Amino acid sequence: MRSFCTCINDHFWREMPQLQEGQQVSIFHGFTMFWDTDTYVMDIFIFRSIVAAAAIFYIYKYTENSTRCYLSLLLFSLSLIVIFVDIYLYRQCDTEKDCHTGNTGMLKAFNPGSERLIYEKPNILQPPRTNVMIVTPWLAPVVWTGTFNRDILNQQFKDKNSTIGLSVFALGGYWKLLKAFLETSDKFFMMGHKVIYYVYTDQPDKVECTTIHNDRECKVYKTSSYDSKARVFMKRMEILHLDIKSKKIDVQYLVCADVDIVFHDQVGVEILSDLVATLHPGYYKTDRSYFTYERRTSSQAYIPSNEGDFYYQANFFAGKVQEIYQMTKSCDEAIKIDDSNGIIAVYHDESHFNKYLLHHKPTKILSPEYIWSWTIRRTSDIQTIRVIHGEKNI
Q1: 259 is in an annotated binding site
Q2: Active site located where (predicted)?
Q3: Strand spans (E) along 121-231
């Protein structure tokens, strides 16, 4: 509802969408001026006061004395009525989400299915964190607590109607860790979004893959046993790219995690991008010469001591499924070349993972908050521990 005095721009209210939550477009501001709801109400009040004053001036200048009093009194009374109605309607806006949206077809075209979202305006001159790097030289964001607004990200992501996959390998005795992995995933991982768990195990009869959420499902795939942890980690690259190719993994985004991690706090869509890697908590402050890259020139994973951006852990990475396919396929091919030459990289698939990311830069980097270890002393830059290593000794 709007008072009748706004009819002069009512057409534009109907036709112009709410371009951003809490902002409107006005005919009185050259069609391009944006302002929040409180400022809008004040602007309309001032505008109406000017119109009323102009009308009274016109009455006194161009009408006879006998009618001036009556017309002025009538105009004054109508103005008071309009002001009281506007105050009432403005107060109603506190409880009505669509008070100023119009619910038009054009609104849906600009902002399909989204609810009104009010948040503090970002300050372009004041970065959210000053004690850590928040963007890389290749303009990839580095995700820390305080650098994102999950409400905004959730709203943007839900409009895409995407499904997120979470893959995990629970082979040998590691199947015992799956319960804690899935329970903490259900509690902290991608709340409010569609998720498919992909569990790979050599003992499917021992695995209980359940979820408490209606928007989630769990798929268990049987895989072969392997004689060492190194083989398990390296074989993962082959299995993932083959299953993506065959559509056994059929999602828009895929998060890959080791079963010996547990979720400790909320992990949401802030971790998603084309290709996402996580900083190793033990090396994010050190010089590249200390990184545990593969230093043997005979290995496909070789990185010289004067190269490398960061050291990434391969136990928690993510990306669009097409990018994960390309990465896992490339790593698998490099692993097989090394294998044919009798070489196993120093840190197995993680060494090849770091070599790939040296030449294919991640589009987003997760801070060590997303793969912390209790064996490392926590410092002030780690504000929230979201993912931690679990117990490896089974």
Answers
A1: yes
A2: 350
A3: 142-143, 163-170, 194-201, 216-222
